[in-house]
């Protein structure tokens, strides 16, 4: 009997059950079972949100996504409480295909919400839509990619998810959108770069390129080689951050570094012959004079 089954058999599922569950999947199931027993979810969600704190209770968020009906999700997404809004926003991805126009319009507004966890809820919703219909998500994101900084950030966060990029053609479309968004980033005026939307887009691009490139290295290579040569400081930061990711290790080896254009091998110059070292001139030895033959004496010596 699993821990989940044990706590279910006790007739009451508590937060302790979630805390001792062996896996995230089991914790999600614990929360789902508890939510089905409750009529009013909001007090329970606030109590077990994990906030304030460094990490929101994402297992509970997933449980709300799976168990919430449309009316409840709409209501939660409009809450002033950050965790409730996160839960409702994330859950809208599950009903996006049922009410596409209404849901996508509302998610577009929430993409620029000042609360960063709500913006994360938008990304979760988009990824959920992508798992159910990637063509629909890609079509919507093409329109969003021409929006403001926040909308473009949602495009990057929503699409750059490894689980979504299993099809090469889908990844090619994502790479084209990343290229378009990066170009917009490079053309931003100095005043726009102080905008919070610009900042969060820059952060998203700081990992998004590597996710898409890992899914389709050959298709990504020309884009990366183009942008790593960019002189723009923010684009340079985006490229450097992506190239430092471990998932980029193999592709990184094959990229042509900036300024390292391949040139034909230069002709080797002929090696100059070594000159003899100068030496002191020596005088040639003078020719030896032959001694004259002795003259013969006349007289008694002559025979």
Q: Secondary-structure map with pairings?
A:
Blueprint: H1 3-9, H2 15-20, H3 24-37, H4 42-47, H5 58-67, H6 70-77, H7 82-91, H8 100-110, H9 116-132, H10 134-144, H11 149-159, H12 168-186, H13 196-215, H14 217-227, H15 233-243, H16 249-254
Main attributes of the structure:
303 residues; disordered N terminus; disordered C terminus; 16 helices; mainly alpha; elongated; single chain
Structure description:
With 303 residues, this protein is an all-alpha fold. It has a domain of 119 residues. The relative contact order is 0.06.
Q: Give the % helix.
A: 55-70%
Q: Which radius of gyration do the C-alpha atoms yield?
A: 39 Å
Q: Helices and strands: which structural class?
A: mainly alpha
Principal-axes shape call? elongated
Q: Unreliable runs, pLDDT <50, ≥5 residues?
A: 1-13, 296-303
Let me know the number of strands.
0
Strand content: under 5%
Overall mean pLDDT: 86
What is the N-to-C order of secondary-structure elements (H for helix, E for strand)?
Answer: HHHHHHHHHHHHHHHH
Characterize the main sheet. Answer: none
Output the number of helix runs. 16
The N- and C-terminal alpha carbons lie at a distance of 152 Å
Write a concise synopsis of the structure shown.
By secondary structure, the chain is mostly helical. It has helices spanning about 5-10, 15-20, 25-35, 40-45, 60-65, 70-75, 80-90, 100-110, 115-130, 135-145, 150-160, 170-185, 195-215, 215-225, 235-245, 250-255. Residues about 1-15 and about 295-303 have low confidence and may be disordered.
